[in-house]
Amino acid sequence: MQCPKCNHVQHNTVECEACGVIFAKLQKIQERLKEAEVIKAEKTAGGNSSTLKILQVLLLVVVVAGTTYYFTGYRNQPVPPVATVTPKTPPAPAKPQVAQVSEQVSAPLPQKAMAEPVVSAPRGNSIERAKNATVSIEAPWGTGSGFFVNKNYIVTNRHVVSFDEKKLAEMREQVETGRKLINLEIQKIEQMKDDYQRLPKGPSRSQLAILIEKYEENLQKILPKQDAIEQRLAKLDRRMQPSDIKIILADGSQHAANYLLVSDTSDLALMSLFSGDRPFIEKAPARMRQGDKVFAIGSPVGLRHTVTAGIFSGMRMQEDRVYLQTDAAINPGNSGGPLIDEMGYVHGVTTMILRDTEGIGFAIPIDKVFEEFRSTLY
Q1: pTM across the whole model
Q2: Which region holds residue 94: left if phi is over 0, alpha if psi is between -120 and 50, else beta?
Q3: 82, 97, 189, 296 - which has most CB atoms within 10 Å?
């Protein structure tokens, strides 16, 4: 339909998405204006009728006075020609200006559209549905987010489900350095113990005993951490399996991915989860305009299904790729979550923020997802 106020074309027949006018209230205002103009016209017509009556009374007085004058003494006198008194024609009643008001105020909505309105889902319900289609993802190296793009497939960021090779090399070097330092510390403690055995009883021997105890305490704190890092590295060194990724749904249930597909060109990955029909977020039918309100859903720092609000700041080029910029809060753990509008449609996949800045986050356009995984999603 077409908005009667700003001519915006849309499907929503309750409220204009462009100017915000509520159609039912506009119709009531039009009806009140029409009633006011009709009452005004009736008052104007009533005033003209009163003027006509006054003129008729005056005419009657003139006729009676002339007749009396004729029969009371002046009958035999020459009668001068009597001027014919023609009553003034009362002015035609003013036409009601309802039509003019109707031209200024847009025409009322069609009765059929008002009788059977198509009510859009409230914003809260739209966000709730999108939140139920968002998942938390736990990998051996960290956490992230994702969301269903249809009933069986989940999209997320590549860096959520695939560890960066450069970071993996740095981690190997740290683990090797840590193990060398621990071995040297063990040798140092053994040397101190040998010295302790050779020292005679006295302050030096007692002091050395205290130092040995402190070194061993510190070593016991470091060893479990080193072992955990080495075990984690061992998992990362072997080839990633879909079963290594834990998917946590909105209801709290945990699942393993059935399938994993990683993009070679974009920070995108696709996982499958065949466990019944799941709610999913539909792709937006139209692009956003700068300044439109948006919402980011994800699991920042372990706070699952967190919703943050902001605006769409515009399209930006970063490293020869197009991104959606927003000031909606995006924190570690949000990566891979959806960026949606007020109606619950998804426009992008949140992916990163600029370091040392506030309110500058980016999302990969949702069209890129369907372009990258065309053979699977279509």
Answers
A1: 0.55
A2: beta
A3: 296
